[in-house]
Design a protein that fits this description.
- This protein has 11 helices and no strands.
- It is mainly alpha-helical.
- Helix 6 packs parallel to helix 8 and helix 7 packs antiparallel against helix 8.
- The two termini are 29 Å apart.
Length: 246
């Protein structure tokens, strides 16, 4: 019951921030559910919930999606997801927590601290590279958004279209990560109660509703900073717990 309450609260918070800022559910739910459900099952649940949440959001923002960039980035995510899945198979729970925390903190550090130093580019290869790395980080830690954000900053991608395009990309990254981990035997959901799904979906609908209200009183930039701050705290917690368990 405690796990279900946690999932509901995390999904409400994450999906409401994602409704405003473009990303938030994976950033917040990834490290928190990794701590309480274990890094393998926690990230697997995040992959599916983030995929469903992004699919619902895509319907509302589809007119702003850059479908060309979506196709190029989304088509190569599997190339990063496969090595991520095999890495999961070879790691203990403690090392997985360390990996989840490290990957998340590294990605967020680039976004928050080094963004002013990212050189401008309009080339195709950085776009596709962000898809490969995003597939890897999403499979390992349940987050693809920060990596793609680095490319978006380099390409000077208009934020409204970038935030909209992230949604179908989250659908692809979540689906690819789930499929690859299932097919390689890196993870499964056999020990997960079915109640997580209706509870999570209920949290999504409430979060999207609250996010719509929140968008009227908080700027996109503030919501984005709040999501990043919560993700940093979660990443540090996962890293610390993993290190103490070694």
């Amino acid at each position: 019951m405690n796990t279900l309450i946690l999932v509901f609260c995390v999904v409400v918070l994450g999906s409401s921030l994602q409704r405003v800022a473009g990303m938030g559910l994976g950033l917040i739910a990834g490290p928190i559910l990794s701590l309480f459900m274990g890094p393998v099952h926690g990230v697997m649940v995040v992959n599916i919930l983030a995929m469903i949440n992004a699919a619902l959001t895509t319907v509302t923002v589809r007119k702003d999606v850059d479908w060309r960039r979506f196709a190029l980035i989304g088509s190569v995510m599997v190339l990063g997801s496969i090595p991520g899945a095999y890495l999961i198979k070879s790691m203990s729970t403690a090392w997985m927590l360390v990996a989840v925390g490290t990957v998340l903190l590294a990605a967020l550090s680039v976004v928050t601290l080094a963004k002013r130093y990212v050189p401008a580019t309009q080339a195709t290869w950085p776009m596709m590279l962000s898809g490969v790395i995003g597939g890897f980080t999403n499979t390992l830690a349940g987050v693809a958004g920060p990596v793609i954000t680095v490319y978006a900053q380099a390409a000077r991608w208009e934020h409204k279209r970038f935030a909209a395009t992230l949604q179908p990309l989250f659908v692809v990254s979540g689906g690819v990560s789930f499929a690859v981990k299932s097919l390689t035997g890196a993870a499964d959901l056999s020990g997960t109660t079915w109640l997580i799904w209706p509870v999570g979906i209920a949290g999504m609908f409430l979060g999207v509703f609250l996010g719509g209200k929140l968008a009227q009183v908080i700027t996109r930039d503030k919501a984005h900073k709040l999501a990043l701050g919560l993700a940093l705290a979660g990443g540090f917690s996962a890293l610390l717990r993993g290190l103490l368990s070694l």
